[in-house]
Amino acid sequence: MRRLRPLSSVQIGVEKMSKTDVVYQELRRRILSGELVAGYRLVIDQLSREFGVSAIPVREAIRRLEAESLVDYHPNVGAQVSRIDEDTYEEVLTVLARLEGWATALAAPRLIGEDIERLRAIAAEMDAALERADLPRYGELNRAFHQTIRTRCPNRYLIELIEDSGAKLDRVRFNMFVLVPERARASLQDHYQILQSLIEGAPPLVLERLVEDHQLKTLEAYRQYKRRTPASPVVF
Q1: Residues contacting 20, CB < 8 A, separation 6+
Q2: Residue 109: CB partners within 8 Å, gap ≥ 6?
Q3: Inter-residue contact 115 to 152 (CB < 8 Å)
Q4: Are 126 and 192 within 8 A, CB to CB?
Q5: Cross-referenced SMART domains, in alphabetical order (predicted)?
Q6: Is the residue at 236 inside a domain?
Q7: How far, in whole angstroms, is CA 121 from its chain's centroid?
């Protein structure tokens, strides 16, 4: 892996990020993208040299990743990129579908014009990403679409549940459309339907079911993928 420049010179906009934040963000990106695979050991001394920092920011970044279930700590082994097996993925996504639908129904009456315009822009970007076959980018935009809606959900605990559950699946969801590219086009149509329903002020129960079904369609697409490739067990 390439050596990063010293973190004291890294800036986002006009504000500097802390060394811990930069290490955390970069390691998280590598895990979600699949660059660091399940079981990969995160060696603090090695990462300290790579990032040009002391062990303290690296250790703190790893703790944050562990809190998100992206990293596991094992005695006598150390920190490793965690694994998500197929059963866990299906169980968590089933719960997440229900929670996401509920959050959308609660958020809908509180969306403002700026939110709708942002959703339009994200949907247009998703369309463009599909046209150029940039499926990882499509996955990122898919997440941003739902996050934009969730920001208006008044139930903070519900949002926390969704984000905690979602963190367990991010590696899968970021790469889902690479595994099952045919789902991406149908998913885009789902997003346009959700957007139109929000604009038209659809009843909360209609929105809840629409979003829940949208999430469960992705799960079904994954199950179909596994039936087509039974000899390839996927552990993320």
Answers
A1: 56, 57, 60, 61, 64
A2: 204
A3: yes
A4: no
A5: FCD, HTH_GNTR
A6: no
A7: 19
Cβ atoms of 103 and 162 closer than 8 Å: yes
Q: How many domains does the chain have?
A: 2
42-58 pLDDT, tens per residue? 999 999 999 999 999 99
Q: Are 129 and 224 in the same domain?
A: yes
The CATH number of the domain where 117 resides is what? 1.20.120.530
**Side chain identity at residue 180, one-letter code:** V
Query: 69: domain range?
Result: 7-81
Q: What is the pTM of this model?
A: 0.71
DSSP one-letter code for 5: P
Give the DSSP H or E segment for 42. strand 41-42
With a CB cutoff of 8 Å and minimum separation 6, the contacts of 14 are none
Closest by CA position to 55, among listed 65, 66, 47: 47
Tell me the per-residue pLDDT of 3-26, one tens digit each, with 9 for 90 and over. Answer: 444 444 344 343 578 899 999 999
Domain boundary among 36, 63, 81: 81
Tell me whether residue 234 is exposed, middle or buried, using C-beta atoms within 10 angstroms of its C-beta: 0 to 12, 13 to 18, 19 or more: middle
Rounded Cα distance, 80 and 62, in Å = 9
92 and 209 assigned to the same domain = yes
Copy the structure tokens of residue 185: 């086009």
